[in-house]
Amino acid sequence: MSRAFLFPGQGAQTIGMGRDLADAYPTARAVFDEVDDALGEKLSALIWEGDIDTLTLTANAQPALMATSLAAMRALEAEGVAVTSADYVAGHSLGEYSALTAAGALSVSDAARLLRARGRAMQDAVPVGVGAMAAILGLGLEDVRQVAEAAGQGEICAAANDNDPGQVVVSGHKAAVERAIDLAKAAGAKRAVLLPVSAPFHCALMAPAADAMTEALGRVTINEPTVPVVANVLAEAVTAPETIRSLLVDQITGVVRWRESVSWMVAQGVNDFWEIGAGKALIGMVRRIDRSAASCAVGTASDVQSAASDT
């Protein structure tokens, strides 16, 4: 069986995530300690005991989700399941940083600082209320692109996340996104709804954040990953450090090509997908992309033990 490890993106955060991993596995707790040290604050206290509105702030959610994913990965390693037991790793948006860290391309400390910077840069790129994102359900990518183009009317509106065959997210100026919702419904979408996000991610409005991340990424060491990483903007595997650095910048304004990424892995023979960290959103997408693929979520100590026992 050929396997891929998947790492979730923003929206998967919950208060208490990863705590039982830290309680059960010293190496998992060490991840949260390292992230706390890197950021100079007790992010772990916010994750385990804070309020969800504060955790959901982009600058907090991004390093918090990475920490939880890496804690789950360390717990798997403690049970004898190494990252190299996967043929590929991939992550959704910020999850790509988790995937790279799991595969040794980034250190945990550097990933935490990069994601804090990324979260702040993405939030600061567009004033609150100017941008928006909406999920379009029941239309394919090309139909949504046509809707977004028609909705633009001189403003930015573009497909941002191609998640699965029936779910595409658009991003841009708020008025344009609202027009896209109406046009999508008229085009036959099953649902079209605004998302509760604080900024319009993965569109041209994020260009200032891409500039900030060019600078931030230029200050860190990126190693060749021990497992190929399927990049969001390419939907295929990469291993060259300088290519990875460039693609992480492109990812800020580029489309998250998740449907194509999963399909590419399936075409390479992957038939077993593990979602490492908080939530189960990615394996839900995998099931809609390829119903024949096996999948499981690994986000708690019991999940780790169950997954390890099945290998």
Question: Any overview of this molecule?
Answer:
The chain has 2 domains: 2-125 and 206-309, Malonyl-Coenzyme A Acyl Carrier Protein, domain 2 (3-Layer(aba) Sandwich); 131-197, Malonyl-CoA ACP transacylase, ACP-binding (Alpha-Beta Plaits, 2-Layer Sandwich), CATH 3.30.70.250. Helices cover 50% and strands 17% of the residues. It contains 14 helices and 10 strands. The protein has a 6-stranded mixed β-sheet with strand order 8-7-2-1-9-10, with helices on both faces. Strands 4-5-3-6 form a 4-stranded antiparallel β-sheet. Helix 5 (58-78) packs antiparallel against helix 7 and helix 7 (108-124) packs antiparallel against helix 10 (207-217). The protein is globular, with a radius of gyration of 18 Å. 52% of the residues are buried.
In short:
This protein is α/β, with parallel strands linked by helices and 311 residues long.
